Amino acid sequence: MRFVPISDTFVSLVSTIWPDHDRDGPGSALFGKTRLRVLAILFSQVDQSFYLREIARHTGTGLGAVQRELAGLAEARIIRRSARGNQVLFQANPDCPAFAELRDLMVKLAGPQMEQVEERLPEQLL
Fold first, then answer.
1. Within a domain: residue 13?
2. What's the sign of the alpha-carbon dihedral 107, 112, 115, 121?
3. Alpha helix stretches (DSSP H) within the chain
4. pLDDT (tens digit, 9 = 90+) per residue, 110-123?
5. What Rg do the C-alpha atoms of the chain give, in angstroms?
6. On the CB side of 120, how many CA atoms lie within 13 Å of its CA?
7. How does pLDDT run across 18-62, given as a tens digit for each residue?
8. Would 14 be classed as within a structural domain?
9. DSSP H or E stretch at residue 86
10. Domain-embedded: residue 6
11. pTM of the model
12. Dist. CA 37–CA 117, nearest whole Å
């Protein structure tokens, strides 16, 4: 928790992983909130695969919204969808023609959030 002065008053701010102050930034103009968060997760750890619930937990978004975004991204071949037994995993697709550009764009648009996401991911995923 940190404190910032506002008109001689200190207001307690709890920093969250996805601050709302970037609502009007270029990321929100290009992508919806959920899509930006999903892409940030997947492109911050391009060598890792994630379960649906993992992605939803780290993005702070509902399962249905995340599932819709993942389905659209997999259909466009921006991400890979793979199955291990009953489990379905998602990963950034390095074979996507726009892979490098998307990774760079996610670093620019969600850079601070991506760093925070990496800090919150379990060590076995890093």
1. no
2. negative
3. 26-30, 33-44, 52-59, 63-75, 99-120
4. 665 555 555 555 55
5. 16
6. 17
7. 444 455 566 666 778 899 999 999 998 899 999 999 999 988 999
8. no
9. none
10. no
11. 0.69
12. 10
